[in-house]
Amino acid sequence: MTFHEQVVVHETIVPEGTASLFSSIKSTAESFAAWVQSCADYWAAANLYDSLHRLSDAELHRRGLSRATLAHDVFRSCDC
Q1: Alpha-carbon gap, residue 31 to 74, rounded angstroms
Q2: C-alpha dihedral over 61, 65, 68, 74, to 10 degrees?
């Protein structure tokens, strides 16, 4: 076996554990992305609540909402 053949052989061998490391990194990145999306959803729900809680009871009723359940209804809307 020549030196060139040895180099080629070493380049094609994937170290053991590389696949599991990649899988672990991918899983962590996916979890982080899901967490960021969840934060964005709840941030949007908080902003929606902030704008709705200022409305009168009559205006809330017209929109099919109740002051008693407003927080629950708004934050439930961000559950996927």
Answers
A1: 24
A2: -160
In the chain (80 residues long), the average pLDDT of successive 10-residue segments reads 52 64 91 93 92 94 94 81
Does the pTM surpass 0.90? The reply is no
Of 5, 35, 55, nearest in space to 74 by CA: 55
Give φ, ψ of 56 to 5 degrees: -70, 160
Structural domain spans, the chain:
35-80
What is the rounded distance in angstroms from the CA atom of residue 45 to the CA atom of residue 73? 10
CA distances from 74 to 34, 45, 49 (A): 20, 6, 6
Is residue 74 within 8 A of residue 48, CB to CB? The reply is yes
